[in-house]
Amino acid sequence: MGNVPTTVKHCLSHEQLARDYPWLKRWLVEEKSLGAHEYPEFVKIVEVGPRDGLQNEKEIVPTEVKVQLIDRLSDTGLSVIEATSFVSSKWVPQMADHTEVLQGIRKSPNVHYPVLTPNMHGFQNALAAGATEVAVFGSASETFSRKNINCSIDESMLRFEEVLNAAKDQQIPVRGYVSCALGCPHEGPIDPSKVTEVAKRLYEMGCYEVSLGDTVGVGTPGSMAAMLRSVTREVPCRALAVHCHDTYGQALANILTALQMGVCVVDSAVAGLGGCPYAQGSSGNVSTEDVLYMLHGMGIQTGVDLSKVITVGDFICHSLNRKTNSRVAQARGSQL
Amino acid sequence: MAALIRTINRSIFISRMGHPCLALGGSATVAKSVGGSSSKRLPDRVKIVEVGPRDGLQNEKTIVPAETKIRLIDMLSDSGLSVIESTSFVSPKWVPQMADQMEVMKGIRRKPGVSYPVLTPNLKGFQAAVEAGASEVAIFGAASELFSKKNINCSVEESLQRFEQVMVAAKAAGVPVRGYVSCVLGCPYEGKVAPAKVAQVAKRLYSMGCYEISLGDTIGVGTPGGMSEMLEAVSKVVPVGALAVHCHDTYGQALANILVALQMGVSVVDSSVGGLGGCPYAQGASGNVATEDVVYMLHGLGIQTGVDLPKLMDAGAFICHSLNRRTSSKVSQATHCKL
Prior knowledge:
The complex is a heterodimer.
Chain A: H1 6-12, H2 14-20, H3 22-28, E1 44-47, H4 49-55, H5 63-74, E2 80-81, E3 84-85, H6 98-104, E4 115-116, H7 120-128, E5 134-139, H8 142-149, H9 153-170, E6 174-179, H10 192-205, E7 209-214, H11 221-231, E8 240-244, H12 251-260, E9 265-268, H13 288-297, H14 306-320, H15 327-333
Parallel strand pairs in A: 1-2, 1-9, 3-4, 4-5, 5-6, 6-7, 7-8, 8-9
Helix pairs in contact in A: 2-3, 5-6, 5-14, 9-10, 10-11, 11-12, 13-14
Chain B: H1 2-14, H2 20-23, H3 27-34, E1 47-50, H4 52-58, H5 66-77, E2 83-84, E3 87-88, H6 101-107, E4 118-119, H7 123-131, E5 137-142, H8 145-152, H9 156-173, E6 177-182, H10 195-208, E7 212-217, H11 224-234, E8 243-247, H12 254-263, E9 268-271, H13 291-300, H14 309-323, H15 330-336
Parallel strand pairs in B: 1-2, 1-9, 3-4, 4-5, 5-6, 6-7, 7-8, 8-9
Helix pairs in contact in B: 5-6, 5-14, 9-10, 10-11, 11-12, 13-14
């Protein structure tokens, strides 16, 4: 073997190679790159339990309970908690107490509390109630749009433009949602190009983030990947989020796929609140606890304390007199 | 043009993946991870090993009569599954649910092209299995010493020696043997389990003559990171074509873990119809991943399984009705709840 001069050793050293070829350094880092995949180091969780979750629960929840739920969630490390929806109480009775809820919650300094605002009327009410962030809901399916909000996609976009313009004036950030991104209860499979078209419109109108929702949970990693490949051609990955429903048990696999493709914002609901309105008795939102378990297990940071979320989940399920949909909560709660 | 692009993307997505070890030298894979490319290669076909009648029922409290077990297996045979783990030749003192092992084995209709493996923890069990007409058996090792001691009352090494006896007899009788390794991603007693230990046990079983090694996340604690790390270690000593994953859904991680395993070249997945079988280490929690949910994912990915999902759901509905319990399969729940 003989003596190898230090300079030569240095030339051949791992460090030198890594310095000369930065791409090689990334490739050689074993910890973060699991198998042949790269994952984000940090994922932002957008907690939709108090709004999307409760909206799809049969029992009308008293205002104090909603306020308590949000306050408890504020202490778990979550940075975004969707608090309520300024829609007509005629359509969504669960959200009739939107003003009281928004005014009743303790607003934690590092937490955002977006609220849904389907139109100008809702936006103005939200503003009056103290909202500092809002969200608008588009759809990739014409039929779903008509049945859900009684207008075409184009008409809904015009409404949202009004909201966006008003929001810009008030410097209120707006998040956009695209529902039926992986399938529609009425139309069936949805073409990824349609999702892209709607996502692009929302992004270009000024939404800082667009959440792509698998509204009926029919998506699988294949359709998720195909849809994201299409959308990421027009909307930057960093501005995308996935909102997966677990109706067919596919949510975590779909979320994993999204992470592999560079998405780093995930919507979820504590305790998996909210069934599926299109399949009575089925589950809806993926549970925050199960998402956190997966992310933390993979070494991905979220800033959220899983045990605290489990405790909040226990609280809301007890109040709703229902069992949690979270497998992690079921397992932890049942430890022998 | 859009359609063409879609086709190309789809084929990239599902074309064959290289072995993780080869990937280190393969420039194509380097380019994949550097570019953050989304192209992951998946198998074209996945074999489902249905463990409901054995692993599933074994972990159900209600004792199910032999005729019900036989009917379940027969219905599963008609759903397109090619491997159905039928029963276990263990002492009924330990596993009362499997006391009717002879009756079940002799009572089922054997569909041509379908395999009906049975568990045989030792030579005595093997002999009884062969007498009952078994033409394939399975043996169960553990990657955790404590689990081995508590579960089968001997060390991992001692259990492997027992299995050697079974292997010798099986070879003589021309009976293929499948090996299981439990606690591959965590142990209820030891906590973390080293991937090297899993690889060691898997290698032993494979060298002994097991044609396939099923790696079991016995308490469902694994996540995609751990699954990936474990498979990297094991696939260095056992060809990935001889590996299967047996994921439990106790923490809801099963499908994500299975997806990662597929991305690493594994093409055999164990699952249980209706998600039968709770977790004996977390009362009330779920156990096996539901076959319906796995098949739904695989078919959605364009991967063939040979399984007819509606027929499979019928079998699931039948056994859940017999057990007077709700299915653990989300696909079944959603399908039966359609407005």
